[in-house]
Amino acid sequence: MTSDKYYIPYLIPAAILTLAFAIRLPVMMRFWRIDPNVRSVGGLLLLASAVFYFGRPKTLALLNSSTGISNFAAPLVYTLLTMFCASCLIMIIHWRGGDPRRVRRTNWTIGIAYAAVVAGLWTTFAFADVPVERLRDLDTYYANTPWMREHIMLYLGAHTIACAITAAVTWAWLREVTGWLRSGLVLLVIGFVLNLCYDSVKLTAVFARWGGHDLDWLSTYVAPPIASVCALFIAVGFILPHAGQALQGLCTDYYHYRCLGPFVRELAGLDTGSVRLPRRSPISRRLVQRRTQISDGLLRLQPYTDPGVRERALAEALARGEAPERAAATAEAVAVVAAVAALRDGVEAGAGDGPVAGAAAAPDLVAVAKALRRSPAVLSLRARSGPSDHPESVTS
Question: What's the mean pLDDT in 339-368?
Fold first, then answer.
């Protein structure tokens, strides 16, 4: 058997494609019956990984030897590749959407056309005379052989058409999306364009054989690495929107959880009835618990809030040139600190009847937490004896 030393390992792209399939598996299991997009993407990833698992020269040799038919693995792998092409087109049709009846008709047309290609692959292979096992250069070795010539052109033509349409439609869709989805689509476009490069290299080598020239090295040594790189781009293109959004959400939740720490410490000692969660709890759950704890504390403080303190703090923050959103957060932070001081100093409940942060105004709790830690108005108020004096200026 021919050595694989010139090949980029097939298992690397196969493993990455399988990983992409595994990452999307929970979504596929949840929406398999109701979302055709989920089914098309899942089938595409599964077929793409199967092409690389079965396309390894060692696997090809094993398939040939187990069936006793030389080069039997060729139509099998090309069938998987053709089904991958059909999955690409079906995925694009579902992405574009439109009239459900038109989508179904188009999908049936694609299915019938590529089923005919698969039937043609097995028919041409059955009539072809391929006695010599070729694990790495079958396309060029048999390029001038009757029926095998048609066999090769069938799979390359189907693959070229599918990749060209997929790349064009995906490129057009780039203008309509943003964020992680756009980044994933860019990688998909690159992957399918590289697939067209793969087809071009293969076809160049085959056409050279037809013209009596020898460019077999293009098909043998250049095309397989291109195919492996294609798989990497396609796999990451499907992984990135889902994984990127999940990672961004995780980082945002952690950032907000950390930012709300000063708010929780400010309200420490208030009876909010919150339950302490285990440290291993998901950060999203801990963030919800921290926000709930703060909201309960603010409700506890509401009877001790003096609206005049907040109004003066807002006016002074605006006078200092703070943006309206930041000034509102500063005023809420001052109101919270003053209300906490009033509660701890034993001021009679109900002396303040204005809302605090978390009431109808619903300010950004993270912004208020930052103001509690950094605002000069809050720092000045902490240095005072307490809010009970009701000064003309909360920062003077």
Answer: 64
pLDDT in tens, 45-61: 889 899 989 988 889 99
CA 164 to chain centre: 24
What does the pLDDT average to over 186-198? 93
**Residues 48 and 195 sit within 8 Å (Cβ to Cβ):** no
Residues 319-348: tens digit of each pLDDT:
888 888 888 888 888 888 888 878 877 676
> Which residue from 80, 16, 14 is spatially nearest to 47, judged by alpha carbons?
80
How far apart, in whole angstroms, are the C-alpha atoms of residue 132 and residue 110? Answer: 34
How far is residue 181's CA from residue 241's CA, in Å, rounded to a whole number? 5
Q: Are 140 and 78 in contact (CB under 8 A)?
A: no
To the nearest 10°, report the CA torsion of 327, 329, 331, 337: -150
Q: How far apart are CA 368 and CA 349, in angstroms?
A: 23
- The phi, psi pair for 304, rounded to 5°, reads -105, 10
Cα distances from 185 to residues 140, 167, 196, 314, in angstroms, run 33, 10, 17, 46
Spatial separation of the C-alpha atoms in residues 357 and 369, rounded to whole Å: 10
65 and 75 Cβ atoms separated by less than 8 Å = no
* 277 CB neighbour count, 10 Å cutoff: 13
Higher pLDDT, 304 or 351: 304
Cα 86 from Cα 17, distance rounded (Å): 17
How close are the terminal C-alpha atoms of the chain, in Å? Answer: 88
pLDDT at 394 over 60: no
Question: Within 10 Å of residue 54's Cβ, how many Cβ atoms?
Answer: 19
d(CA 374, CA 171): 46
Distance (Å, whole) CA 203 – CA 7: 20
Q: Are 274 and 292 in contact (CB under 8 A)?
A: yes
